[in-house]
Amino acid sequence: MDRDLISRLAHADHPVAAPLGDESVTRLLARGLPRLDARILDLGCGGGEWLLRALELRPQARGEGVDLSAVALEHARREAERRGLADRLTVHHLDAAEFTGPPADLVLCVGSTHAFGGLLPALAAARKLLAPGGRVIVGDGYWEQEPSAEAVELLGDLADLPTTVDMVTADGWVPVYGHLSTRHELDDYEWNWSGSLAERAPDQLATATEHRDEWLRGYRHCFGFLTLVLTPVARR
């Protein structure tokens, strides 16, 4: 089965493709959307859930999403129609790293920094697309504890929490709010990922089982997820 379709099925019961609960998403969006008529851009939008929730939160706002997955973008279009938001949402089938467009009041990149090669390259791309006075919401993983070699192989070369925040601030950003995913949010995401895929695609049971085993045995003990609301340091 196509990897994009596997991802779509795995997120059927957890449409936010990151380990965050509904209240956390709403709180982060509220802090990132000071303007009622904001222009919102999601780099690596997937199924568009962050954008759709932002548009529901700000009825005068307009959203734009960029993603390489045609399957995910079609889901975003259908959901926008179903929720009565289609006239305020535009999606682009494009590599997020190649996107150019008018400045946005809020740039989102949660769980999709890999599209740019990591956290700091993702922030560099967001900076280029950010309107004056705008904010960025970025979400990425970090190590809560010393990782095993298997965890590093699965998830890449992450840093611990203080180092991650130091990297962001040294890059010229001010965190105005942040959220550390709770144990419940992390576990809820993973149970939904493997369970939703196994339930909706029985032929992918081996894939679901492999993912669950990688989580339980490989990185559950050491992986954390940080979401930050950022503004760029004012230049003098």
From TrEMBL:
UniProt GO MF annotations: methyltransferase activity
Q: Which Pfam families match?
A: Methyltransf_12
Q: Which UniProt keywords apply?
A: Methyltransferase, Transferase
Gene3D superfamilies noted in UniProt: Vaccinia Virus protein VP39
Tell me if Transferase is a UniProt keyword of this record: yes
Query: Which GO biological process entries does UniProt record here?
Result: methylation
Q: Which residues form the Methyltransferase type domain?
A: 41-136
- This protein is called what? SAM-dependent methyltransferase
